[in-house]
C-alpha cells in the first residue's frame, strides 16, 4: 500500500560545475530530478509511503532514475520501461544570480506518449492521496487527458488530490497552458499556485481575490506561494491564514523549492487532516515554508530535503 501516489516525468539532470553560459561549461555533475519525484523524495524522507508512477526509456539513464528513487524508499514497481522512447534529460545553467535557466531535452520521451487509455486503477490501490502537477499535461498530445483521467479515478475512490500548476513556459504555448491548467483546478482538493502562476491564470488581482476565485473554480483549498513573503492558505468559509517566511541567509538554487514546499505542505496535511479544522492549515503552511526555504540552500532539487529527525531538530532550533 501507499499513502501517496504521484505521476510524472523525471529526467536525468546535468548541472555544470561552473557558473556562466553552458556554452563554456566543460564539466557537469549528474543527478536526477522531476517535480513529482522531488515531492516523493520529500515525503518519503518524512516517513510517508509513496508510489511514483512513470515511464522511462529502457536505457541506462532510466536505470539511474529508478535506482535513485528506489534508494529513497519510493515504490517504483509500477514504472513502465519503453524500448522505443528515451528517458529525458535536462541541464541547469547557473548565472550567479536569480533562478537558474533550464534546457530540456524531453520531446518524444517515454512519458510524452502517455494516454488516458494507459491509466490503471491499480496505480491508486490502497492510497489516500494523489499528487499531480501541470508539467505532465505539457509533455505530449494526450498527457493532459491522462492526468485528468487519473484525477477522476482518484476522486471516485475518495482520495484527496493536490495539484501544483508548475507552469513551464518552455513546454507549451500560453493559451494551451492556461486552458489546461484551469481545467484541472475543479478536480483538486489542494491547489498550490505561486503568485506569478496565479496571475498567469486569471490576471493581476489581490491575494484574497486569487483565493476566492480559485475556490469558486472548484478547488477545496488554495495555497498561494508568495516566495520570500511566505505563503497564504484559503479554505471556503474561513479567513485566509498567512504564514511568515522562513529566513534564509543565501540562495543557491531555487529549482525544486516549490516541490519542497508541496512536500512540506502535504506532510502537514496528511498528518493532521482537514485543513478547515483548528490550526491544521497554519501548521502545514509553516512546514511548507520551512521545507521550501531549505531547498534553496542546496544545489540540486532534492538533495537538501530533511529526514524526519533532521526536520524535528532544525525546527526546534538545533543545529546539524
Ligand atoms: O520543480 C522542479 C522541476 O521543475 C525540475 O526538476 C524539472 O520536472 C522538471 C520540469 O519539468 O521542469
Can you walk me through this structure?
- This protein is of the alpha/beta class.
- The chain has nine helices and 14 strands.
- The protein has a domain at 36-53 and 115-309: UDP-N-acetylmuramoyl-L-alanine:D-glutamate ligase, CATH 3.40.1190.20.
- Helix 1 packs across helix 7 (257-272) and helix 7 (257-272) runs antiparallel to helix 8.
- The two termini are 33 Å apart.
- Residues 33-35, 38, 135, 166, 168, 255-256, 258-259, 301 line the site of 2-keto-3-deoxygluconate.
List the helices and strands and how they pair.
Blueprint: E1 4-7, E2 11-16, E3 28-33, H1 35-45, E4 50-53, E5 55-57, H2 60-71, E6 80-82, E7 89-93, E8 101-105, E9 129-133, H3 143-156, E10 160-164, H4 174-184, E11 190-191, H5 195-202, H6 207-217, E12 221-225, E13 231-235, E14 241-243, H7 257-272, H8 280-295, H9 308-315
Parallel strand pairs: 1-4, 1-9, 2-7, 5-6, 9-10, 10-11, 11-12
Antiparallel strand pairs: 2-3, 7-8, 12-13, 13-14
Helix pairs in contact: 1-7, 7-8
The structure holds 2-keto-3-deoxygluconate.
The site of 2-keto-3-deoxygluconate (KDG) has 12 residues, from helix 1 and helix 7.
